[in-house]
Design a protein that fits this description.
The protein is α+β, with helices and mostly antiparallel strands and about 220 residues long. It has a single domain, classed as Thiol Ester Dehydrase, Chain A. Helices cover about 20% and strands about 35% of the residues. The protein has 5 helices and 8 strands, in the order E-E-H-E-E-H-H-H-H-E-E-E-E. A hairpin with a 2-residue loop joins strand 6 and strand 7.
Length: about 220
């Protein structure tokens, strides 16, 4: 099978671009990348969180592999899809200031970026496009209906905290490495890295599952 990688070229900065989206090509294969995720969409995805626990400020999808597109230039990078989020933690939502980015905040930030990025991938039809085979992909209304009870972390592995992260302004990069449908459930094998202006300060691998309850 032939695949095409669609990606945005970084501008050499950790800041997220606010460039306007371009219209898709007439052949139907292209998506405007980076694909900014609107503030309203992010707010909707984070609505279950208490206001002081909404650490994700903006997000975008910067790259994905289109399994149905004709071949173009050689693929760069790894994984099926990459999303980036900008975060700020003014104060911890659960404890007095510890002075460092900890495991609880790692999980919260991962969850929030995953909700926004996967939600947008589903709404924009990207999840349908990264698979060679035909699968029963998740619909966006189904995702929204089951967001909290059915989207869960199955495993977290290899988490490392290298140096203190400047939590007042940092970013997370989530990469989807594999997407495996099992019946009506999906398992997403991902990697996540959190960085500030000095570089990567924490990273790990997370297996995420979406398993909606059917009645």
């Amino acid at each position: 099978m032939r695949t095409t990688v669609l990606e945005a070229r970084p501008a050499g900065s950790v800041m997220i671009s606010r460039a306007a989206q371009r219209p898709p090509r007439a052949d139907g294969y292209a998506c405007a990348l980076p694909m900014d995720i609107s503030e309203a969409f992010v707010a909707d995805m984070l609505s279950p969180y208490r206001p002081n626990a909404r650490y994700l400020k903006s997000a975008q999808i910067t790259r994905f592999v289109d399994a149905s597109a004709p071949p173009e230039k050689a693929a760069r990078g790894t994984g099926l899809m990459t999303g980036i989020g900008r975060f700020a933690i003014a104060e911890s939502c659960y404890i007095d200031a510890t002075g460092h980015f900890n495991a609880v905040e790692f999980n919260i930030c991962y969850n929030q970026l995953a909700y926004a990025v996967f939600g947008k991938c589903i709404q924009a039809g990207i999840l349908h496009r990264i698979r060679h085979d035909k699968v029963d992909a998740i619909s966006f209304p189904e995702f929204k209906r089951h967001q909290l009870p059915s989207m869960l972390i199955v495993a977290i592995e290899g988490v490392r905290f290298f140096k203190e992260l400047k939590s007042d302004s940092f970013r997370g990069q989530l990469t989807l490495d594999r997407a495996v449908p099992v019946g009506k459930a999906w398992f997403f094998f991902t990697t996540i890295a959190f960085s500030d202006a000095e570089g990567v300060k924490a990273k790990g691998s997370v297996v995420l599952a979406f398993s909606p309850t059917r009645h």
